[in-house]
Design a protein that fits this description.
There is one protein chain. The N terminus is likely disordered. The longest helix is centred in the C-terminal third of the chain and has 73 residues. It is built from 19 helices and 9 strands. The protein has a 7-stranded mixed β-sheet with strand order 3-2-4-1-5-6-7, sandwiched between helices. The protein is an alpha/beta fold. The relative contact order is 0.10.
């Protein structure tokens, strides 16, 4: 496709019904379309578009001075006789044995220079090429200079290779003249397999009712009217219909005049390419269909996917461990100093998951892999269902060729998903890396009441020791009727129990808050993974669909 615009402008500079610049824009839009959908759509339905892009560049680079016209018809239609009559020379063999025409013959009006490469591309063998350049009637043939007329093999030939050759060349020539005869003009093969397929190429199609000499003069208009009806039914209502016979020297004059006009206009190649673009765009339009917005972040399918990913990532187990770890660490920080060492010996719930250890512990730093339990079969099934729901929601309203691409995109990175989820959980800030201020305050208060109880206990032990040794006893001060040492001991113990009793519900409430906070952060982290590994590829397909629609509008504008 590179340089197709330049080649087109160079090859066709004259103004005409088909705007060369507009045709360039349409062809380049088809080229951009192919680039956009590459990797999203299967290759087979795109073959006609790729063929058009390649063929357009090749055709327009070969010759700007030649118009390629093909005579196509069934056995016995007289197209070879018509070919010879147009050339006014016996170039193509005429007969009644099937197949009459087995190879393509070409007649070139004017010098062959510039047409040789074009004939090579068409695949016409050198021994079947003829140059219509004569000193005797050169002036008479000058109006056709630049015409390359092809006599194609019979499309109803019993030789399969002949039919393949016809189909190949019909996709390459600039203009097609369909030659039918009075006996088989209504044949279903020619209408269903060929004429009907050329409805997008009405501008480069002619139909000739040949051998009209075989009909009574009064029947010719009736047969032409019936053939016109069939052509209109085939979608070829604007295609010229001519009558011809080689039995009369003036019989082919109508066809000759039409070809002279076509050669003079130098528009056949442009019209053929424009018709090809129309046909390709119509097929591509069916593949694209109506616009489809991307999935909204608050779409229920996205919410369901986030929940399923959270379950697979072990978020419920982690947030439960966060709550337990909070209570464990709160009790370790606010309990009696003598019991804290015992509590520290107990494993921390988060440390068991390789998420973080107690505050100040070297294991508190986050690691790349966790020990979150493997997802259950139910969690995996829920994720598969969520992925299917996302795919269906994203592909809703798209033509049938797109859902497979959306599903493939949604599952393209599933193999990397477990590690990504594990990293997201391991890297999430659970809010458990620093002790709370109220822990320090309560812990300090516990140290005070514990020291008070220890002071009272020591005072009482000292008094008992002095009495046991017969030494003078130190009389402790009294607080009411209770000695101060006893008050310190009992008061410290009771205060410690009271602080612990009051702290326990506070720790449970704070642990639930910590769980909610961790769940929110983990859900956000998991949602980011889902967005990157599942939703982003899906959105890329939807964006490609939107871009394809945009460039298709350019290709559609004729």
């Amino acid at each position: 496709m590179t340089g197709i615009g330049e080649r087109l402008r160079e090859a066709f500079r004259a103004d005409g019904p088909v705007d060369p610049d507009q045709l360039v824009a349409r062809l380049e839009a088809v080229h951009r379309f192919l680039g956009i959908v590459d990797g999203h759509l299967p290759d087979t339905p795109l073959v006609p578009a790729r063929t058009l892009v390649e063929r357009a560049g090749t055709r327009l680079s070969l010759s700007r001075d030649h118009t390629v016209v093909a005579l196509a018809g069934a056995t016995g239609s007289g197209k070879s006789s018509l070919f010879n009559a147009m050339a006014r020379m016996d170039l193509s063999p005429v007969g009644v044995r099937r197949p009459t025409t087995g190879v393509t013959h070409a007649c070139v009006w004017g010098p062959l220079d510039g047409g040789t490469r074009l004939l090579d591309w068409l695949g016409v063998l050198p021994r079947h090429r003829f140059v219509r350049e004569s000193v005797l009637d050169g002036d008479d043939e000058s109006t056709l200079h630049g015409l390359i007329l092809l006599d194609l093999p019979d499309f109803d030939s019993v030789q399969h290779a002949h039919r393949l050759e016809v189909d190949r060349l019909l996709g390459l020539v600039d203009l097609v003249v369909w030659v039918v005869d009075p006996q088989k003009y209504a044949d279903r093969v020619v209408h269903r397999s060929y004429l009907r397929e050329f409805h997008q190429h009405r501008d480069v199609t002619l139909v000739v009712l040949n051998q009209t000499d075989r009909l009574p003069a009064a029947d010719v208009p009736r047969v032409l009217a019936d053939l016109r009806r069939l052509l209109d039914k085939d979608g070829l209502d604007e295609v010229p219909l001519l009558a011809s016979t080689v039995a009369d020297p003036t019989g082919p004059d109508g066809l000759r005049a039409a070809l002279e006009r076509t050669v003079a206009e130098r528009q056949a190649a442009l019209r053929r390419l424009s018709g090809d673009v129309d046909a390709v765009v119509a097929a591509l339009d069916e593949m694209v269909g109506a616009p489809r917005p991307a999935l909204a972040p608050d779409d229920p399918a996205v919410d369901a996917l986030d929940r399923a990913l959270g379950a697979v990532a072990g978020v419920p187990a982690v947030v439960a461990a966060v709550e337990q770890a909070y209570r464990h660490r709160a009790a370790s920080a606010t309990g009696w100093p003598l019991t804290r060492i015992w509590r520290r010996l107990r494993p921390d719930p988060l440390r068991r998951l390789h998420l973080s250890g107690p505050p100040g512990d070297p294991a508190e730093s986050l690691v790349a892999a966790t020990s979150v339990p493997e997802p259950s079969a139910a969690d995996k099934s829920a994720l598969a269902l969520a992925l299917r729901t996302v795919t269906e929601r994203a592909a809703s309203g798209l033509p049938s060729i797109w859902p497979d691409s959306v599903a493939t995109a949604a599952r393209a990175r599933l193999g990397d998903l477990p590690d990504a989820l594990d990293r997201a959980v391991a890297g999430a800030d659970l809010g458990m890396n620093r002790p709370r201020t109220w822990w320090r305050l309560v812990g300090g208060l516990q140290w005070l009441v514990t020291l008070a109880a220890a002071a009272g206990l020591g005072w009482l032990v000292l008094g008992y020791a002095l009495r046991a040794l017969g030494l003078p006893e130190l009389r402790p001060p009294m607080v009411g009727e209770v000695p101060a040492p006893t008050l310190l001991l009992l008061g410290g113990l009771l205060a410690g129990l009271l602080v612990a009793a009051l702290t326990r519900p506070l720790a449970r409430w704070a642990a639930r808050r910590a769980r909610q906070r961790a769940e929110t952060r983990l859900t956000s982290a998991v949602a980011l993974v889902g967005d990157e590994y599942v939703l982003a590829p899906v959105r890329a397909v939807i964006a490609a669909h939107a871009d394809a629609r945009t460039v298709l509008e350019v290709a559609r504008h004729r």
